[in-house]
Amino acid sequence: MTSNRGEKNSKGLVRGASWLFVWVVLVILGLDFWNWGKPPQLYLGLPPWLWWDVGLVLLTSLGFFLLTRFAWGDE
Amino acid sequence: MNWLMLAAYVVVLILISIILRKRAGRSTEEFFLAGRSIGPFVLFLTLAATNFSAFFFLGFAGAAYKFGLGQYGIMGLGTALVPISFYVIGRKVWKLGKQKGYLTAPELIGGEFSSPFLRRLVLIVMVVFTIPYLLTQALGAGMILSSLAGIDMTRIGAIVVILLIGGVVVMGGMRGSAWTDVLQGGVMIVAMLAAVFFVAKGLGGFSKAGLFAFEAFPDHFMRPGPDGFFTPLKWFSFLILWSFVNPLFPQLFTRFYTARSLKSLRTSAWLYPLLVSFLFLAPVLIGVWARGTSLSFSSSNMVLLDMVVYYAPRWVHALVMIGALAALMSTADSQLLALSTMLTHDLGIRKKEVGVGRILTFGLCVLVVVLILIGFDAKAGIFTVLIKTTFAGLVVLTPATLAALYFKRIPKIAPVASIIAGEAAVVLMRLRVLPTFGLVDGIVALIVAGIVLFVCTIFFSRRWTQ
Q1: Residues of A contacting chain B (CB within 8 angstroms)
Q2: CA dist., res. A64 & res. B80, Å (int)
Q3: Backbone angles phi, psi at B413, to 5 degrees
Q4: Residue A42 — left, alpha, or beta (φ > 0 → left; ψ -120 to 50 → alpha)?
Q5: What is the pTM of this model?
Q6: Which member of A34, B142, B172, B399 has the lowest number of beta carbons within 10 Å of its beta carbon?
Q7: What is the rounded distance in angstroms from the CA atom of residue A4 to the CA atom of residue B51?
Q8: Looking at this predicted complex, what is its ipTM?
Q9: Handedness of CA B191, B10, B59, B223 (dihedral sign)
Q10: Which of A62-66, B143-147, B177-181 has the highest mean pLDDT?
Q11: B391-413 residue pLDDT tens
């Protein structure tokens, strides 16, 4: 009984850590300071750093999709 | 044509509420939480529509017009990260709501610590920071109707819209609010996509629209942007702020309880960034493109509407007006219901809660009408301060909420002190006594609230152990 609860708790911790890890990575990728202050070349009317942000939004959705599949826990 | 489209929209809204009226009156949980039975599709759209306020159509393009494309990063990218709170907060809130029958945020936070005082404190914070926001939604509606009519009818328009919203909530309760959100969400998505498509077309295509604006105002395409607005610390602050503050809006927090199952919440978690963040790009683009035109605008709030009037067909203008109304009405009805739920339930009314909730909803509408009639000015006085500090004021609740969900054995004085210290920090920053160190005030307030919670937990736990 106790070991079951311990196992459940540790699985919960791993799931929580997975969400936090993905969130932190996305925040770090969002801090694209290497693009700061550069005079941009436009692609389809937008600077590359904005395309980077749009790509990150897609990545965020994909990341959360995978987390809801594999790190969501009991229904 | 414009008024016909508006009339059709209003008729459908009222019909949805009338259809759901009988069902809404069945029980307290049915009226306030739609019987905790909202499925994935409706939950996703109601979460998204509730988050799209007057700012989405009126303020966003204006901010991009002033500060450039960076506006997308701090709002769109930041908002995309919000679903972590669906896992960390929403999931636990849903489970506790099912287990213990909680209906509101104050009830859960106070209940988990067995502290009626904490419950009242959370209630006060949520009500104080939500009412001014509700007022701005109503006035935003008045502005939109004025633009549609071509005459100034801000106040009368605001009164008509708040009474309409009140009617929808009184009749349909949460289920009515959620289903009208589906309609409103659909309308605002179509309207915003039509706006960006036709404005781009009017300017000669996406690339040309961008190029014209870039040639006139290159700073708007770079960071830190005009006048160095987007500092790295400000960028970082906004990137993380929304993940902490969004779930603490009472109208969003309440929606976590309404999910039929965790599957509903799970689906919203990955669809939310996809829809919300991509749609945020449209008003930002229109705002920045306006820099490449020779148009002048009476106010920054009118940038998007004026661009649509000038570059899009008339029917698109009408559609965008209705979309803007839908955006602020979907936020306002959720705020109204969240407020009446809290005021009914957290003030201890136990008999005929549905009836009292309906009366309180109507009472809140009357309060808004009175404030508008006596000359409430969204740009003046205490309300401006409250609106400007809403995010900071609400994010202060995050450490106490996390403690209630995960560490409810800590001394109850810790969350109380955390909230009081956090709100004090918000006031001190507004008075410029406490520096923000280049961060936005919400992040500083969050840090203060978090530190106080931690220190109080250590201090009082040790004292009790000894």
Answers
A1: 16, 19-20, 22-23, 26-27, 30-31, 33, 35-40, 42, 44-47, 49-50, 53-54, 56-58, 60-62, 64-65, 67-68, 72-73, 75
A2: 10
A3: -70, -25
A4: beta
A5: 0.91
A6: A34
A7: 40
A8: 0.91
A9: negative
A10: A62-66
A11: 899 999 999 999 999 998 899 99
